[in-house]
Amino acid sequence: MPDWITHILVAWTSCRILGFKFNEFDSENTVLVMLGSLIPDIYKIYIPLDLSGIYLQNFIFPIHLPAGSLIMALLISLLFRDKKIVFMFLILGVFTHYALDSLLTYVSGGMELLFPFTWAEWQLRLIGVDDYYLMIVMIIVALIVFAVSRFKRCNS
Amino acid sequence: MKILFPLKKLKSSRIIAALFLLILLFSLFVYYYNDYESEALYPSTKTVLTDYPQGKMISVDGDVIEVYEGGFYLKDSYQGKKIIYKVTSSSKVVVTDKVSVLGSLGPSYRVEASKILVHKKWKEDFILFRSAIGGLFLVIIFFVYWKFDFKRMEFIRRKEK
Question: Does the distance separating the beta carbons of A108 and B41 come in below 8 Å?
Answer without folding.
Answer: yes
